[in-house]
Amino acid sequence: MSGVAGKLQHARSRARGLGTRVDALRYLEQDYEALRGACLREGRLFEDETFEAAPHALGFRELGGGVTWRRPKELTPEPQFIVEEAKRTDIIQGALGNCWLLAAIASLTLNKKVLDHVVPPEQSFEKDYAGIFHFKFWHYGEWVDVVIDDRLPTRNGKLLFVYSEQRNEFWSALLEKAYAKLYGCYEALSGGLACDASEDFTGGITEVHKLNKASPHLFRHIQRALVLGSLLSCSIDASRPEAGCGEVKRGQLIKEHAYSVTGAEELPCGPEGFTCKWPWLCARARPEMIHLIRIRNPWGMGEWKGPWSDGSAVWTEISCKDRARLRHKAEDGEFWMSFSDFLQRFSQLEICNLTPDALGDDGVKRWALSMFEGSWRRGSTAGGCRNFERTFWMNPQFVIKLNEEDDDPHDNHTGCSFVVALVQKNRRKMKKLGEGLLTIGFTIYQLPVKYSGEGNIRLDRKFFLTHRLAARSEAFINRREVCSRFRLPPGEYLIVPSTYEPNQDGDFCLRVFSETQAEFQELDDQVESNVKEVDISEDEIDGQFISLFGQHAEEGGKLSAFELRSFLNKEVTKRIDIQTEGFSLQSCRDMVNLLDKDGSGKLSLVELKILWDKIQSYGNIYKEKDEDKSGTMSCTEMRQAVEAAGFSLNNSLHQILVARYSQPNLTIHFSEFVGCLVRLECMFKIFQTLDKDGTGKVEFNMMEWLSVTML
């Protein structure tokens, strides 16, 4: 299936409701139930041909030798998918640098409802076992069901990557394999942010808190997030002097390593009737209270050894009941510490909210979600940031209409709250090609009243040169997602997502959460043609042109595509103010198809004259839009020239034109420019002829479709 056809099919699937939480898309079109049923009928174990048990599934660099792929039944006599229930101790890191993923999985176990959606619990190694398992992930705006076989990479008879404390339990290892398949290979999972995986497990949105600028209400926010099932992770910047350097040392925490936050408790600072001997512990809490936070190292080892750690003496200063409930002496990677120590030692906290409801500062609120998918393409829709004034306007544009102010009796500040999250897609898969994350961000402008309701008009360069920002993302950064929260007065606002540099290819998903219902739409030009039909008589043609026609016309007084090509390449190359590589035979055939009225496949004198006048007009447009007088046209100039020629096209069509007609350096020669416009006019004309009722839709059978497309 071609790329364009694939996009159309995908859009139709989304329109039917596929890709939602209740109706996930089949990843790589693999149907779990059908594949499992076939294996059971045929008495064989499933082998996944789309993610083979082979070196390329491990990675694009050598992950070490001696790797053997084995099924759990080859590793232990009685394997279990889940032993009793999935726990955070089921996730112990192996030989892969994916602590960020494992921290998110550990947090996932704290919410059974979400866990059961990602890890369907009915799977087992007993009833109807066929060597096949499946998992569900939120993947850039849609839910997908990923099928795998249970052949796992091992070395010396042990799992190479993640494993459970219970060595006969395999849900976490199989989940990791499904996630590796989603992103191309195991090695693609090396290095990342826990919030990215948390979003893939929930479809939620991540708030990032810098702990050196922590809100005084952050502890309450953490408690509320844990109750609401949010996934929390934390990490330490390399610049922090208080932490270790990537190795486990007594009493030290690990820099640039992802931890899970699994609990937060507010306790009386001392047993009943006892005066606290350590008043400094209560400094950040209200009198006689202590705030504690529980953290887990996904390595399953390497714990904090300071106050409130497993062996700390301060545990004797809380009630026996609380001590019995919270304290757990084991080298399992999980530990408590005071919230004040947490703020001092850690650098960043990430809260992935299961739904936007947890984002409110004062209780649970109802948020509305809007989402669009889009792309940046060099030469058409990748305009770069505002620093690039000449191309910035070419970026995709979206409008949100905020109608109602927040209804919050505890807040004296009025306005409409909303959250914008920009996610760049599929970059982790591209690691094996040596490509990393793009630097992305977005800007927001208030839309003047005169543009209100104008959904089919893109704003041009002049608008952005004459209007100031209303808001923007905190920074352009090379992260998978950039997310910011805003509160602005009611009105319409333009959101422009972009890469920092222009002409960088990428795909994105833009999500907007608003506290009150808001209208959200893409701002793009309407697709239409305003080219006028031209009709002339033979009497209006001068003698010089008739002579030129006679020099090239075949016997019978008409020009075929071959003679037309000779005519154009001779006459057009006389112009020194434009560059052309000559007209292709395909372009000449398109020209004949456009003007040939009798179906002979050839042009008469009158038809050639109409074409020649059209080409002369296009030449004037080409020269006018060639701002730097280079004799060629840039893709930016091309967009304006297409509009001057009478065509209004949207972003998708401009992307197609650039891909088909531009040179590697993103310039368009005159011959390609003419060929593009002729092709456009021809296709518009065919559609308008068939759309007799003006409905904007036409139907084809196979013969009709081939007749049109093979012209």
Strand order of the biggest β-sheet: 7-12-8-9-10-11
Task: Say how many strands there are.
Answer: 25
Separation, N- and C-terminal Cα atoms: 21 Å
Q: Let me know the average pLDDT.
A: 86
**Radius of gyration from CA coordinates:** 32 Å
> How many domains, as an integer?
4
Proportion of residues in helical segments: 25-40%
Which structural category fits the helices and strands? alpha+beta
What is the count of DSSP helices, taking H or I runs of 4+ residues?
20
Strand content: 15-25%
Biggest pleated sheet: 6 strands, antiparallel
Oligomer: single chain
Topology:
Blueprint: H1 3-15, E1 25-26, H2 32-42, H3 55-58, E2 68-70, H4 72-75, H5 99-108, H6 112-118, E3 132-139, E4 142-149, E5 152-155, E6 158-159, H7 171-182, H8 194-202, E7 205-210, H9 218-227, E8 231-235, E9 259-268, E10 289-296, H10 320-326, E11 334-338, H11 339-345, E12 348-353, E13 368-376, E14 397-402, E15 416-425, E16 440-446, H12 461-466, E17 471-472, E18 481-488, E19 491-499, E20 506-514, E21 518-523, E22 528-529, H13 543-552, H14 561-572, H15 585-595, H16 605-625, E23 633-634, H17 635-644, E24 647-648, H18 651-661, E25 667-668, H19 670-690, H20 702-709
Parallel strand pairs: 1-4
Antiparallel strand pairs: 2-5, 3-4, 5-6, 7-12, 8-9, 8-12, 9-10, 10-11, 13-20, 14-19, 14-21, 15-18, 15-20, 16-17, 16-19, 22-24, 23-25
Helix pairs in contact: 5-8, 14-15, 15-19, 16-17
